[in-house]
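Supplementary notes for students who missed Thursday's class. We covered one full example, reproduced here. Read the sequence, then the structure, then the short commentary at the end.
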Amino acid sequence: MSLRQDLRMGLSFAFRGGKEGWTRTLLTAVGVGLGVALLLLTTAIPAALAARDQRGNDRSDLQPQQLKHPTATSMLVGTADTTFGDQDVRGRLLQPEGAKAEPPPGLDRFPGPGEMVVSPALADRLKDGDAGLLRERIPYKISGTIADAGLAGGPAELAYYAGSDTLKQGADNVQRISGFGNDAEGRGLDPVLLLLVLIVFIALLMPVAVFVAAAVRFGGERRDRRLAALRLVGADAAMTRRIAAGEAAAGALLGLVFGTAFFLAGRQLVGGVAVMDVSVFPADLNPAPWLAALVALAVPAAAVGVTLFTLRNVVIEPLGVVRAAKPRRRRLWWRVLLPVAGLAALLPLIGKGDDGGSFNAYQVTTGVVLLLTGITALLPWLVEAFVARLGRGNRAPVSWQLAVRRLQLSSGTAARLVNGIAVAVAGAVALQMLFTGVEGDYTKQTGEDPHRAQMTVNSSGPAARHLTERIADTKGVRETVTLDGSSLARTAKAEDSISLTVGSCAALRELARLPSCKDGDSFAVKGGYAAESTKKIAVPGARAYVDPSYEYADGKAVPWRIPEDVRQVTSRPDPYGMEGSGLLTTPAAARGLFASGGMTREVWVRTDPAVGDARDRVRTAVAELDPLVMVQTLESTEESGQYAGIRTGLLVGAVCVLLLIGASLLVGQLEQLRERRKLLSSLVAFGTRRSTLSLSVLWQTAIPVTLGLTLATGTGVALGAVLLRMASTPVAVDWPAILTMAAAGGAVVGAVTLLSLPPLVRMMRAEGLRTE
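Structure (token representation):
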């Protein structure tokens, strides 16, 4: 027979081989399909990120140059971003100035004063029973919904555009622009972040490849017995291998169909799901055509290759399969070469993470893939060597003896089911070490002290005079500290100026160490960034000018004579961590100074930790005065946005891979139970307890899983140590976190095993002995 005829016969066995044939093909297709779906999702990520960035650029109102005068296309835009709970809400107030002004992307017209257009997610959030404070904060009437083109953050983004007729150029957080859109390119990733991205992709995709390879081997023992029957009717060894390849290709091709269906169905569902606050539009998940074609070609080719590789040591004779006898012991030497070669590829890259360094992506990929592939090669040998030394005595429980004997006869099958979870755990351990090691480089101390103040509010507009009273009357506010500020110069031109801060004695003590203080005192701060200017300007009794640097003032420098009793004091870091400077004075000494405006009020807020929504109450109270007033939460640390984005991507990908692992393991477990259905029914018929058989299945899973997780943890620690040295970071092992990851992998396997117990009980019935 020709090659084409042999492959066609294999296809026929897959789809026309009766219940046994199509059941095996269906199981293979489901297993392969799950892997294909995740591969297609991965190939669609670049397009989704590009679409997300493009929408962000299209709606950007950050302009390099501000317009000074209205034009036919200009508009005033006020930034009214806020936070509700732990969710960010993007808000913009719009006031068109010209007849040709274009609304932002996602809107077909400008909302009128008192109206707002909201994202679908925000519309749903406002309907929730616990969103009362948010409704008070943005009380505008909803007149429409933002279309997808205006939501850079995806369908789960909380955003709104509100109309206004009271915006003024130069006011707090207001700018005049000619239109939306910014072509600014994002900042590139440094070498260590590029290394993180590369390792994330490898660690997430390697388990997928392992599961796809395992799925095409479902029902291998029954297939080999069927091939032995073909030998009996005249087929030679080469012909049987070609027929087996055709059967595997059939399952893989059907798996491509299933995978495409899974991907399309998942893509439609993804719009309603947000994982780690990340959401995407279904339309954005479009795999690159060449990547999708590569998956379509690689999966069937891999199926055929894996099938031929597994048959290399199987002698299929007309009267049976030699593999049914005790297998030859596996050799160790070539299995060790894989991780050794991987380390050899990575070692030359040690220290490349210094400034200006770079990593060869192909070399990193090769090294990591070889190391993780080494797990799949070493685990079968480890399981075989371990179980060979078990079960020699008769004192062990029957369930243990049954499990050990089964593993001794088919250790490769058991290891194959665990390989995927072992590779996933090894990659997770290495990534955890790398993320933990470099976290300090991308998380910096802000210098802010959230113990002294939890929030700060700044305003220069009319609302400034009422801020303190409104905030102080808010439930959950324990204390407020108010400081009014402006600029102080020697001349009206204000070519050289210092800060002038007005506040009570208690408030000024937040900025400087005051020996004594009463209302009417003034202090010049020694040191700080404006020490020389302070000596020149803050001269007792000298004439100076307060610069009304705000539109609501009368536009003229206000002359003021510095008090005669100015004392020198030492600065103290404020809650921002900034050293105070300039001239500090109490209200009595600056009475009437800001009668015409020109001051900026800053209120530091200390909240009561017993009131859980105190911060939201403060934000709502401030927004009722003026939605454009800036409210900031003090944090002691600040994390790099790029680093946080990569970590979020890893967590989202890990969730998807864990779901794939669980589904694939369940399919594989059910396939193994189906293979042993008659054996299980026979044992029950001879009097074996069902509980004994159930425990034996648990032992058959627990032994290889324990060995696999141990090997994965060791390999992951070794890989993590090399990656840290590549990033020029000291090696540190967080054992509690690593053991938690290993436990998570074990929990997935345990959950799958428990889910397989009900089918196991059904397969123990006497009906399993029936045959045709």
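Commentary. Residues 47 and 350 are 32 Å apart (CA to CA). DSSP finds 20 helices and 22 strands in the chain. If anything here is unclear, bring it to office hours.
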